[in-house]
Amino acid sequence: MIRAMIVDDSPTFRLLVRSILESDPDIQVVGEAINGREALRKCKSVHPDIITMDIHMPSMNGYEAIESIMADMPCPIIVLTGTSSSWNESTHEKAIKSGALVALPKPKDIQGVDPAADTLINKIKAMSEIKVVRRRNFSRPTKPIKKSSYNISKSTVIKILGIGASTGGPPAIHTILSGLSPQISVPILIVQHISQGFVSNLVKWLGSSTSFNVNIAQHGTRLGSGNVYIAQDNHHLTVTRDGRIYLKQTGPVDGHQPSATVLFESIAKEYGNEGMGVLLTGMGCDGASGLKKLADTGAMTIAQDESTSVVFGMPKEAIALGGAKKVLPLNEISSFINQRLI
Questions:
Q1: Does 166 participate in catalysis according to the annotation?
Q2: Catalytic option among 92, 174, 193, 256
Q3: Which domains are delineated in the chain?
Q4: Out of 6, 183, 280, 315, which could bridge 165 as a Cys pair, Cβ 3.0 to 4.6 Å?
């Protein structure tokens, strides 16, 4: 039985969410709170498996509550705010940065009538068992690592860098890009599992808050040195040997389209040991087998460690397959890449 807690200042909406959740025999609502401050108290007594969280509430808003919960008593959190017709794209970015797993529009009716209610049920079931970690401040500047910290060979010139991420990925990607040297001249290709329609917002955020030129990947684009390309919705991101982006729709791989495994396999095929792959926090196994294929070519591959992953799913699978040559905490990954590429 999944133990859920509802946090919202509207009694009418709390009643609606309760009716949606309890329509499923696998979900039990164990508590309600009218603001973030009450949510903190209730968490300590009812110990929910998952929380639905409003943002705009008196006393303590949702962002503040999420940060406090993730710092003191980590628990999967789904933000519910706005509606599909009045959705503010920045909400997803702010919610994820605060520590939530996902942000969804508020349902307006019960399951079977409003698709948003069905989506909520599915997300609750998928995310309730995620092992989240205590939230740390990964946005601080990375500490320089002494040149002797790693045994790094520069005998092979790296020509391309691929990154895969899912749950908890946007702030992790931001940390890495913020820590990379402006001298990095290879193209960076990223697959981030994200809600439909939010890729453009992720691109704007990363482009405005890091030194890189960040773009949505477009079919046929020639890869530019030091540019960042993020996979489109519903398209696998691959590359050609002559340095162009090749998008394709061939169905989900490892449950996803775009898939990090497809990206890594493409880099392995076209660039071999002249590529580099990084697999970050995320639920499931996407990217693991692809990172292994890339590693088998002799390429450098990195997996984020458990202590800094929001969800240690994808990196764990890659490590188990032998696909990660280095397992590093998030705040050391960019320093390692700098040493290898500069």
A1: yes
A2: 193
A3: 2-127 (3.40.50.2300), 147-341 (3.40.50.180)
A4: 280
